[in-house]
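Hey team,

Filing this mostly as a record. A colleague (T.K.) asked me to run one chain through the structure pipeline before their review meeting, and I want the input and output archived in the tracker in case anyone asks later how it was produced. No errors, nothing strange. Just documentation.

Input sequence:
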Amino acid sequence: MNALTAKVRKHLVAGSTALRHRWASPGDLVGLVLSYGLFVFIFSRLWVTAYAGKSVLAGYSQHQLTWYFIAAELLIFGQGGTAFRNLSQDIKTGQIAYTLGRPRAYPLSALAESLASTLALAVPLALVGWAVGTLSAGLWVPESGFQAGALVLSFVLSMVLQFLCQFLLALTAFWVEENAAFLWIHQKLALVLGTFLPLEFFPAAWRPWVEATPYGWLAYPPSRMLSSWDPAQAPGLLAGQLVWIGLAGAAVALVYAAGRRQTAVQGG
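Output structure:
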């Protein structure tokens, strides 16, 4: 038990360090928050035009679609590509060889740092998104404590899954020196498949294929629960996220182990 507590404490320290580092650059935070607010405002105006003469599109009202986009974009802006870039840089510079020798699991420390950094940015993003959404589409408040709890859990699960996807792609730096294109492709797929529009807007024949990838579970579950709350649907959305976290975690473990062997063979 003491050993487990010590390991948890080490990862918490890594997270708190990342949190302090994020808040140490207020100018960067302000720039990201303003960009998010502008992005959300522009698209909220786009939905006003799209809904001219219509009350519902693909089962979503203008109010629901606006809040869906606000929630989905918060996840994208909150994490960006930091996890990918940090690991890729460590591998390319050889810093990973020193990191592997530390008395803590590198992937778990990286996850703690990513979550802490994202949560530090999520608060101001949420405040700006809430203000823009209220002014452009109307007020949103949770319908119940169950919805609020499910939303928080789903947002955290989305952050974990996003981190695992980026971490897995960054591990390609063990074999591919210029791997930035993988992040670019990943971000564009994440934007199109469930962030820009809910899955209900896709043709019925396409949706099973989207749900068979992690992209259907990154932004869609929390954004769907926020904009179109259905207590009966929430357990299935959370379960789907957990399944993909398990699959992505297993893939990360396998590729990370192969990368460590690569480092050992090359002598760091």
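Quick notes for T.K.: The chain has one domain: 2-266. The radius of gyration is 19 Å.
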